Amino acid sequence: MRCDHTPAWQALQTQAQHFHAFDLRTAFASDAQRAGTLSQPAPHVFADMSKNHVDAATEALLQDLARQTGLTAHRDAMFRGEPINTTENRAVMHWLLRQPEGSLGGALAEPLALVHATLKPMLAYAEQIRADAQITDVVNIGIGGSDLGPQMAVLALQDFVMAGKRFHFVSNVDGHELVGVLQGLKAENTLFLIASKTFTTIETMTNARSALAWFQAQGGTEVARHFVALTTNVAAAQAMGMTTTFGFWDWVGGRYSLWSAIGLPVAIAIGAAGFMDLLAGAHAMDQHFQTAPLEANLPVRLGLLDVWCRNFLNFTNRSVAPYHSALRRLPAYLQQLEMESNGKRVDRQGQALPYGTSPVLWGEPGTNGQHAYFQMLHQGTDTVPVEFIAVKKATHHLKDHQELLLANAIAQAQALMLGQSDAGGHQHFTGNRPSTFLLLDELTPASLGALIALQEHRVFVSGSVWGINSFDQWGVELGKVLAKDIHARMASGDVAGLDASTTALLQRMR
Ligand code: F6P
C-alpha cells in the first residue's frame, strides 16, 4: 500500500501535531532514558539519534508504517535477487559482492561463484601492481559512481595506502582536470584505470581517448599493460584496444559499485587483504540489516527517521559533517547515493507522488564547516538536521588535536540543541535544532565498509517506504541528450528552434 494511504501515515500526521511544540531540552529533562532509548549500536557504528525531534512512540508508529508498506518483504526480495529495479527489470545485488564465497545456495549460488571468480583475479592483479615498482601513478578515469566511491575510499583509508604510489582521479570532461593530472606523469610509470559501468559515458570516453593519445604521444607502447577497463561492457573496452578488463554485472548500480571491479583503485591502494576487510565490514552491516528486528535495526531506524523528518516535520535538507579530514569526500559520495537514488517524483508504477522524497544532502568536514555555513545551521530561518560522523581513535600522535576535534563535534551537536538566550536578538540561538551522531571506534577498511553499507540501506528504507524505485536514474538522461545536440550546434552555429536565452549563450560561447 502506498505510504500515505496507510493507517500509520494518518497516525503519524496526528502525532506530528504534538511536535509543533516539541522541545529537545524538555524531552531530555522529562525522560532520563532518552539517550539510551534513541541510540543504536550496529556493526562498527554506534548511532545516537536522541537529539532528533522524535520519541519512542513516534518510532513505534514509523515501524508500523514500515510494516504496512511492506518494507521487510521488499528488503527480502532484494536479498533474494528479485528484479526490484522494475524500470530496468534488474536485480539489485551490490550486497552479493560482499557475501563470503560459497555462503549462498539456490539461485544465488551461481552469481556468487561468479563474483568470487572475478574478485580473485582482480585482487591478484592489485597485488601484482602493488609489487610493480615501475608503476608509481594510478589514474582512475570515471565519473559518478565510477569515481566518487573509489575516490572517497582511497582518501578515507589514506593510513592504509601503500607508500610509493600516487592515486589520481579524473572525472570531469573539463580538460583542465586531465591536463592537470597528466602534468608531471610519465607514460611508463602510469597505470590508467578506465572505470565505466556502461563504457559509453561521454565524459569518461573523452578522457580515456585523450589519456590514450597522451600515452602514445609520450612514446608509450604497451597499451595492454598501462590501460585497464573496469566495466560491464567488456566488448566496448576491447574495441578500444583494452585487453585487460575486470567485469561486473548489470545488477550493480553505478552508485553501489564500490564493491565491484570499480573498487580496483582501492584494492591497489590498500591491498587484497584490506579490500576483503572493506567487504567484510559491509557484509556485517548487510547481516544486521537483514536480521535485526525493526526496532533495533540501525538502517531501518535511520531510514524511518529520514521519512519522519522529510514528510512530517518538513525538513527538506540533511547536512553531513564528518569529523575526520580523510572523510572529506564522503558528503559528495552520500549526495549521489541519496539524491540519485531517492530524487524521484513518481512511485514504482509511474504515478506522481503527493509527498516529498529525497532531502537535499550536502556538507563539509568539521571543523571547517563550523567556520563557514554552521552560522545558518545555528541561527538561520530553516531547520536543517545535521549528521555528525566522528571517529574516536586517531592514527596520528597529536592527542590534543584529536580531543579538540571530538570536543567540537560534541559541542556543535550540543549547541544546536541547547541554544542560548539573548534578549538583544543577534546573539540569540533558538536551540532545539536536530542532529544525529554516528560514531566509529576507528577508521579502518572494515568500519568504512560498514558505514557505507549502513548509508546504502538507510536510503533503501526511505525509498521503499516512499514506494519509489531507488535504483534507476532516468533524471540524468535528458541533459545527456541535450548536451549532444548543443555540442553539434557549437560546431555548426545552427540555432534554429532554440529559445532566445540558449541562442544568446551559445553565440557568446562560440
Ligand atoms: O549519469 C549518471 C550515471 O549513470 C551514474 O548513475 C553513474 O554512476 C555515472 O553516470 C557513470 O556511469 P558509468 O559508470 O556507466 O560511466
Strand order, largest beta sheet? 1-2-11-10-8-9
Q: What percentage of residues falls in helices of 4 or more residues?
A: 40-55%
Uncertain regions spanning at least 5 consecutive residues? none
- Overall, the morphology is globular
Question: Which ions and ligands are bound to the chains?
Answer: 6-O-phosphono-beta-D-fructofuranose
Largest sheet: 6 strands, mixed
Structural class by secondary-structure content: alpha/beta
Determine the mean pLDDT: 97
Rg, rounded, reads: 24 Å
Per the CATH scheme, the topology name of the largest domain is Rossmann fold
Q: Please count the beta strands (DSSP E, at least 2 residues each).
A: 11
Beta-strand portion reads: 5-15%
- Secondary-structure element series: HHHEEHHHEHEHEHHEHEHHEHEHEHEHHH
N- to C-terminal separation? 53 Å
Secondary-structure blueprint:
Layout: H1 7-18, H2 24-30, H3 34-37, E1 39-42, E2 45-48, H4 56-68, H5 71-79, H6 109-131, E3 137-141, H7 148-156, E4 166-170, H8 175-182, E5 190-195, H9 202-217, H10 223-226, E6 227-231, H11 234-239, E7 244-247, H12 264-291, H13 298-312, E8 317-323, H14 330-342, E9 360-363, H15 374-379, E10 386-391, H16 399-418, E11 435-440, H17 445-466, H18 477-492, H19 500-509
Parallel strand pairs: 3-4, 3-5, 5-6, 6-7, 8-9, 8-10, 10-11
Antiparallel strand pairs: 1-2, 2-11
Helix pairs in contact: 1-4, 4-13, 6-12, 7-12, 7-14, 12-17, 13-17, 14-17
This protein binds 6-O-phosphono-beta-D-fructofuranose (F6P).
